[in-house]
Design goal:
The chain is mainly beta. The protein has helices at about 5-20, 55-60, 135-140, 365-370; strands spanning about 45-50, 65-70, 75, 80, 85-90, 95-100, 105-110, 115-125, 130-135, 160-170, 175-180, 180-185, 190, 195-205, 210, 215, 220-230, 230-235, 240, 245-250, 260-265, 270, 285-290, 300, 305, 310-315, 325-330, 330-335, 340, 355, 360-365. It has a domain at about 125-405 and about 420-440. This is Plastocyanin.
């Protein structure tokens, strides 16, 4: 397809978009059907605004294998990508901004496999910065107000995705939200001001998802994992200065109960009692890691420090136990309680254990000895209580501090479209190191390699 033809088609599409009164739009039909004549297999770069006036218009022109490359600017639209295997990339992570103006629910919605979203900023959406999903209900935000209660909708997975070098800030629910999706990677991204959580992975099994080398701060929760597990790796992230650093839980609002089988390794989880943040829905405050009805998870070589309530806690929902979680080779320092297990109902956990951790305090006392791995899978988990500091009132997500510059995607303007694998390479936990104390310095980034 000639560049002149691209410009002509894009101009018509852009005019129709503006006449409709909405600067966002839908992507293609998802089947790679004819979108202009070009040699079979040819891949093109569609530039915004050079070849199309809006990002949505450019996405509607793209065919599988194409790159949509966006020039610096503030784009007031919601972009839906429903054509497989295209790359949406900003020329500058800081200067390419998709701004929801507190009127649009989502910045970018991905509903097709093999899509990469790279090197841009999404901000001020009423729900999500980037949503990757196979759920039609989640796209519409119904029937649950946040899009995560999907009613009677059958589970349908989106297969394969990449979110890389994205800044998602001051969004009304989640910064980066992978729901009913599999075989993906969320990496090198920054999230802040998420009124629910910065990064969220929900309703997948087996997930085959890697969440790595991200920074999540000033959110209600840095990273949240609900009803998700099976080859799900949360590794090498910096979860610092939220209200709660990380949660892994079971929730009846989503399908695929219960949550189980996630690996959390090599993360820095620190100082999660930042008052200038949105309030956490359950009132959580000063918590590094919270396990609520999650089972068979592994927590390996994380540095968990400075969380005023508790470094890692295990509890259960009214009817879902927290069983066989393994906490090994982590370093706990300067937490209110390093490890605490507490159950407010008759529902109790079984088979939870610790081994090789550096820690000072546990509730109940002596867990390092009495619950040392291995323990029988049916061994009752003891319970205790501790005093928690009172959480201060939160602030609106719109008032959270704006982020500073973040690292750029290398060669963003000179390389072609990104090929997203059908299944990502999964990390070997033996190669994941404990983060250095030097990484507590402001702005330091954790790396898994």
């Amino acid at each position: 397809m000639s560049r002149w033809a691209l410009r002509t088609t894009a101009a018509v599409l852009g005019a129709l978009t503006l006449m409709a009164g909405c600067s966002g739009g839908s992507g293609g039909d998802g089947d790679g059907s004819d979108k202009g004549r070009r040699p079979d297999g040819a891949k093109v770069t569609i530039r915004v605004p050079g070849d199309a006036p809006t990002i949505s218009a450019a996405v509607s022109l793209a065919r599988p294998g194409d790159l949509v490359l966006v020039a610096p600017g503030v784009y007031h639209e919601s972009v839906r990508v429903d054509t497989a295997r295209i790359t949406l990339r900003g020329e500058s992570r800081q200067k390419v901004v998709i701004d929801g103006q507190l009127r649009r629910p989502n910045g970018v919605v991905v509903t097709a496999p093999g899509v990469a979203v790279e090197n841009l900023t999404v901000r001020r959406n009423t729900q999500n910065g980037v949503l990757v999903t196979g759920s039609a209900a989640a796209v519409t935000g119904l029937p649950g107000s946040g899009g995560y209660d999907t009613g009677d909708e059958p589970v349908r997975f989106l297969k394969s995705f990449l979110v890389s070098h994205v800044t998602a800030t001051r969004n009304g629910l989640y910064g980066i939200y992978a729901f009913s999706a599999q075989n993906g990677v969320i990496e090198h991204s920054y999230t802040s001001g998420g009124a629910d959580s910065g990064i969220y992975v929900g309703q997948c099994r087996p997930c085959r998802i890697v969440v790595r080398d991200n920074v999540s701060e000033l959110n209600a929760v840095g990273y949240e994992n609900t009803n998700a597990g099976g080859d799900l790796y949360v590794v090498g992230n910096r979860l610092v200065g939220n209200r709660v650093g990380l949660t892994t839980n079971s929730d009846h609002q989503e399908k695929l109960l219960p949550q189980r089988d996630t690996v959390v390794a090599g993360n820095l989880i620190a100082d999660n009692q930042q008052p200038r943040t949105p309030e956490q829905a359950d009132g959580g405050w000063g918590i590094g890691i919270g396990i609520d009805g999650g089972s068979e998870n592994r927590f390996i070589r994380n540095r968990i420090t400075g969380n005023t309530t508790v470094g890692l806690m295990i509890t259960a929902t009214a009817d879902l136990t927290a069983d066989r979680n393994r906490i090994t080779e982590n370093t706990f320092t300067a937490n209110g309680v390093d490890v605490g297990w507490t159950f407010s109902t008759a529902t109790r956990g079984r088979g939870n254990c610790l081994r090789g951790n550096t820690l000072r305090t546990t509730v109940p006392a002596g867990l390092a000895d009495s619950a040392a791995c291995p323990v029988p899978a049916t061994a009752p988990t003891p319970s205790g209580t501790w005093r928690s500091p009172t959480a201060p009132a939160g602030i609106p997500f719109t008032d959270v501090a704006a982020p500073g510059p973040q690292p750029q995607l290398p060669r963003a303007t000179t390389t072609g479209a990104t090929v997203v694998p059908d299944v990502p390479a999964l990390p070997d936990t033996a190669d994941i190191r404990l983060p250095s104390p030097s990484l507590l310095a402001a702005g330091a980034r954790v790396r898994t390699s």
